[in-house]
Specification:
Mean pLDDT: 88
Order of helices and strands: HHHHHHHHHHHHH
Largest sheet: none
């Protein structure tokens, strides 16, 4: 296996992992605040179609990413109004958000099917003709969103562990009543966490439609939102483990296609199943293995907070 081939595979794995990493980091922050949002898939699709539509219409990938991020945040805000202000069931609302996102994105994206869009440039392409040694390609052969996902991991880890706001968010997720009793605005903290999670899901969708597969197709997320949910559990609600898990699942996805490219006869249906089979296997091992008692799930996860009057 040549160095060029190895580098090419690693670059592809990083690209496959990036949308999972964005969405998982957002959901991690949401769940740390005590809220369970199952609408990641819908928010990713909303972000993907908004980013593609604005990117094609304006010719600017940056504006497309901004629009996709805003679309995800707007969907999350609607989820927040229903679950935080109106105290609706979080599971049912999240599922409804996903179904709504699938339908809305299909409707808005109908006129963009088959329309080409310019892929987001890599760092190398921005400053040279893209020709470089394999090692330089591995380091600089990605677009800005790939690097942003790694920076976001470090920022989320620092925020949750070191910052005062992060400690308040964790306190709200562990005991909302106690946090409320000492004067913290539980609903306000959770609103901010939910909107951040939606923005990250929208960013993940933007990456899909503008970089990973620069095109628009209905349901192009292909279940990545559900994998992102599983990754949060797999990582025991720890940001750096989310990073490792995203790259692991990215490797599973690419490894299946790589095996087929090397001549291994694998039915296409099995290739489509592998990432989700891996997700089920990992969650099963976590549920029955020695890690079961050390998941660190927030104590108030999924429990609505109703402040006393």
């Amino acid at each position: 296996m040549t160095l060029d081939f190895t580098v090419s595979v690693l670059i592809t794995i990083m690209a496959a992992a990036t949308p999972l990493l964005f969405a998982s980091l957002g959901e991690l922050v949401v769940e740390k605040s005590g809220v369970l949002n199952l609408g990641i898939e819908g928010m990713m699709l909303a972000g993907a179609v908004a980013a593609f539509a604005v990117g094609v219409s304006t010719g600017s990938g940056i504006l497309g990413v901004v629009a996709g991020t805003a679309a995800g945040a707007l969907m999350a805000f609607a989820f927040g109004v229903l679950t935080l202000t109106l105290a609706a069931n979080q599971v049912a609302t999240g599922l409804a958000l996903t179904i709504f996102g699938i339908g809305l994105s299909a409707l808005l994206g109908a006129s963009f099917v088959g329309v080409p869009v310019e892929e987001l440039p890599t760092i190398l392409e921005m400053f040279s003709d893209g020709e470089a040694s394999p090692i330089v390609q591995l380091i600089l052969g990605h677009d800005l969103l790939v690097y942003l996902s790694i920076v976001a991991t470090a920022c989320v880890a620092w925020f949750l562990k070191k910052s005062r706001a992060g400690m308040i968010l964790r306190a709200v997720g562990e005991s909302d009543i106690s946090a409320h009793s000492i004067g913290y605005n539980v609903i306000g903290v959770r609103y901010r966490a939910v909107i951040f999670g939606g923005a990250m899901s929208g960013l993940a969708g933007s990456y899909l439609s503008l970089s990973y597969t620069p095109m628009w197709a209905e349901e192009m997320t292909a279940g990545r939102g559900w994998i992102a949910l599983a990754l949060v559990v797999f990582a025991s609600w720890r940001p750096w483990r989310v990073l490792m898990g995203a790259y692991l699942f990215g490797g599973v996805t690419i490894g299946a296609f790589l095996a087929q490219g090397l001549g291994v006869e694998i039915p296409a249906q099995v290739l489509n199943m592998l990432p989700y089979l891996a997700t089920i296997l990992v969650l099963t091992l976590i549920a029955v293995g020695p890690w079961k008692g050390r998941l660190n799930a927030p104590a108030c996860l999924g429990i609505p907070f109703r402040p006393s009057t």
